[in-house]
């Protein structure tokens, strides 16, 4: 459904249902190009905004709780209570059983406990409405996939329809199909993490969606959140999963989620250095993305991810990766960790330490500061790599390179 290298939605047609009612309903939820169209609208709005002499429009800003403009899910409302993994949908908070239900009511109860004098919030009302619409869908229809491998649940999640996704997830959890994958190997949870629908992520986790699943690129939802800087979704996984999260899982590129977050932060730092446009909106967006990636890295460290883990292809740790961009912000974070002294001189498969890597940078404005920081934290300038080179022998010529040896002799 979604291109894993971006948030573009692929247009496809929903599967045919068994009768006219199901066909009508399927047509109503199958407009899958909505995600792509709204993303294009966002980009056009950004371009328009940058052409208005840097006059920012409030509509183009997104708050901490609304990371995407196209997220039409009712965020302001409290999430529902966890649901038992069976076909019965219980509205949050759970309704007391007042009378014996018929088989159809038992499968999809639509009575909400307003009899107790309690008021129903908007999200609860939406759940009740969607339950009435899809109450007759059979397990066979729920599990049917279209040409892209998408189920009704994948489509509802991609469109940001939280209440509908909640109801469908409850039904699919009951028949053991909540973690069904589409053609890119993505479950509904991975789709929600990709688009950063954090409340849908929470709902799916409450229904029992599995975190340690891989897509066709070997990425778990943790990788997706870390790579894209989706802090809110990552927080939901951290706090609400109730599962043992494999924070050291490698994707098929040999990277953990923490590796992916560090590389994304490096890319954000590099982009900010090279940016020449004066659009204040774009500048603010880059700063925010950089900050969100930092928060993702902090969360992953709290979850137990190790920045000393080596990637499987080159043997780089997160410290090596940060040095590749002279990323002083991350170097300070990692070197302040208690185990930094045992990590600072770790070698890659080619025998390079972090000091080798940062010393070999070309025209990097933070190179001298990074070298000085590593030296203060115990980096050994006498270690040689497999080419028998010392870090000082890798320093390039030029105004920036001339400052590095002086600092290393201090």
Automatic annotation (TrEMBL):
Gene3D superfamilies: Ankyrin repeat-containing domain (1.25.40.20). SMART domains: ANK. The keyword Transcription applies. This is OCA domain-containing protein. ANK repeats lie at residues 184-216, 314-346, 350-386. Residues 23-45 form the OCA domain. GO terms for biological process: regulation of gene expression. Keywords: Activator, ANK repeat, Repeat, Transcription, Transcription regulation. InterPro entries: Ankyrin_rpt, Ankyrin_rpt-contain_sf, OCA. It comes from the Eukaryota. GO terms for cellular component: nucleus. Pfam families: Ank_2 (PF12796). It comes from Amphiprion ocellaris (Clown anemonefish). One of its GO terms (molecular function) is DNA binding.
